[in-house]
Please model this.
Amino acid sequence: MTIYIAVKYVDNYRGTEFPPSPLKLIQAIIASSQDQYMEVLSALETQTPIIYTSEVSAQYDYARFVINNDERLEHCNTGTRKEDIVRQFNAETAVHVVYEYEIGAEVVPRLSEAVERIHTLGRAGDWVFASVSEKLPAGKFDVYRVADDGKTLLRVPMQGSVASLFAHYVYRNVPVVYKTVAYAMNPPQRLPRALFELTEPVPAQQATQVVERIRRAAMSAKIKNADGHDLTAPRLAIYPLPTLDFRDHMIRRIVVSSTDATLVKAAIGKLAGASLGEGHGYLMPTEHDAVFSGYTSASRRWKSVTPVLQSGYHNGDAKKRAKVYAKMFTHAGLPMPISVCEVKQRTDDFKVSAKHGHDKLPRVNLLVEFAEPVPGVVAIGSGRYSGLGIFANL
Model:
């Protein structure tokens, strides 16, 4: 179940990072209760939460000068400056920082006990009141989410972080285990997704065949609605991503996405290591890299890398063309671009299934521009669920 850890600062926040990192929250629980709530710490250390923060009403910087009391006449350390940032929240705001986690219902009572014992979050003087609720507290919040192009780097716990914190406290020379994650403030909302790579790359022209093999693997793994036949239910979208560097145009990476997060979780678990048939290799989970960023990072300008199958004909008429494109972008759940340009580029070498008459539809390559940045993957047209109509960001 989704729970929210709400934190209210008694005075100001002087921590060096903002918002306070998820690792800092784990440290705050340990500082207030030691190892009394190990099941809670174990549940939190493997998650990367969404963070909500109230608006900072005032912020000021100051420098402290530290002297060296060594009884010498010349104090060489007198000029050492230590920078401090003080962030002051609106006194009328009920909650200042909120962390969103997925926690089993059986752990929630113990989590509430542990969180209510937290007394500081940040530096030693950053006193807080903390509590757990099943609903996001009322208020106006900035939202920090994990994003490939995020500018806020925060320390996030991972498997082994809790054990390393206790070991570091006892032995001092043991390093703390954590990972650094990029967060973005108020990023465009993106769909849940899973990232994979192919052990046997294929040319971009075979995008539809790659999608079909992966879809068959998903059906064999009994992932709900993997075949996409039930149009009333959320479906699993499979996006093959051609590598664009050096005009390689080989498909090595795959994004699996859905409006239903449970389908994505099922794909992560059941498609990892899935065979795509004899001679076609396997589907392996992977980490985000520059190639994925070229398709998933938010951008205003996008260019198709696999042909778009037009959902209708316009015969060059400007009004008809605008209606055709408006229909295509609306069906894909995207805003209507402020500019759509057709690009002359070869499309006849791409495999297109004859199913539903797709092989008879007009094929075009497009360059589009939106009024606001749109997160990827961007895919439009009648073939967007078969590896066609996929765009890379510019």
